[in-house]
Specification:
heterodimer; A: mainly alpha; Cyt_c_biogenesis_CcsA/CcmC (chain A); cell inner membrane (chain A); Heme exporter protein C (chain A)
Chain lengths: 257, 53
């Protein structure tokens, strides 16, 4: 039974190695161009291929091209929330200061990408299903995810003491992670209007390679872009917190009397 | 191309969102970097100034 606290301590020291803001700023500055430029290249290649060179679907016509935006956005909406939940875990268990800052920055980006997923799904649904929206299990669970992001953004800023906001938001992020398997398996558990997953970890994809490749490229591009934006925002947040600390330092006449 | 307005709307929304988020992050980072550099310079200068009563 003594192994588990040791494991927690070891894992904690591993994460705390990267909790130093100065070290993160250096690492972030080095990572930034490696995330940004490939993100632009992969996204343009994937969307360009999907828009102009991939074939139209025999049933859906050219509206299938919306997939190259909608599917990466849907994957990132769930992936971003998983990142938020991980930050919540790091914050609650190891009091990782960077995890709190990263959670503040992931929230708005994740909310935007979830809104994009819902909007493009709705735009795709209108010509295919004849309606902008249905209270289908997949659509509703993604809408719940969007509200979870909004709740996280509101909660993290709701307290005068930022530490209390971070704790409350971390608990919400962890509790909200229950929605992720519901989103994933909603098309299997319930009879939904939304089509089943075309790409799974266990089986072969049910779409042709001429559609799969541009989809893979745009998914990689969107993921790198999401990471680039979150890293840039977190670097800015670390610098802003250092600015606040400098401004309130006693040498400058700031801080409590 | 069939369903063109729907495709244009989807890609347009994605482009607007990407531009707003990336330009916003870049401007915020640039502002923070400049302000921090200015503050650290001021702090270093005041730390280096000999104390005169």
């Amino acid at each position: 039974m003594s192994a588990s606290p040791t494991l927690v301590a070891r894992t904690g020291s591993f994460f705390h190695r990267y909790a130093n803001p100065g070290r993160f700023l250096k690492l972030g500055a080095r990572l930034q161009p490696w995330l940004t430029w490939p993100a632009i290249a992969f996204t343009l290649a994937g969307l360009g291929w999907g828009l102009f060179y991939s074939p139209a679907d025999w049933q859906q016509g050219d509206s299938v091209r919306i997939m190259y935006v909608h599917v990466p956005a849907a994957m990132l909406a769930s992936g971003g929330y998983a990142g938020l939940a991980l930050c919540g875990l790091l914050s609650l268990v190891w009091r990782h200061p960077l995890a709190d800052l990263a959670a503040v920055e992931i929230g708005p980006v994740g909310a935007c990408i979830t809104a994009l997923c819902l909007a493009t799904g709705s735009i795709w649904g209108k010509p295919m299903w004849g309606t902008w929206w249905v209270w289908d299990a997949r659509l509703t669970s993604v809408l719940v995810l969007f509200f979870l992001y909004l709740g996280h953004i509101a909660l993290i800023r709701a307290f005068d003491d930022p530490q209390r906001g971070y704790r409350a938001a971390a608990i919400l992020a962890l509790a909200g992670a229950v929605d992720l398997p519901i989103i994933k398996f909603s098309v299997q558990w319930w009879n939904t209007l939304h089509q089943p997953d075309s790409i799974t970890l266990t089986g072969a994809p049910t779409m042709s390679a001429s559609m799969l490749w541009p989809l893979a490229l745009s998914t990689i591009g969107f993921s790198l872009g999401f990471a680039a934006i979150v890293v840039a925002r977190t670097r800015a947040a670390v610098m802003e917190s250092r600015i606040r600390a400098l401004l309130s330092s006693p040498r400058r006449g700031g801080g409590a009397a | 191309m069939t369903h063109l307005p729907y495709i244009v709307a989807s890609y347009g929304l994605a482009a607007i969102m990407a531009l707003v988020l990336s330009i916003g992050a870049a401007l915020r980072l640039r502002r923070a970097r400049a302000r921090l550099a200015a503050l650290e310079q001021t702090n270093n200068r005041s730390a280096g100034t000999p104390f005169t009563p």
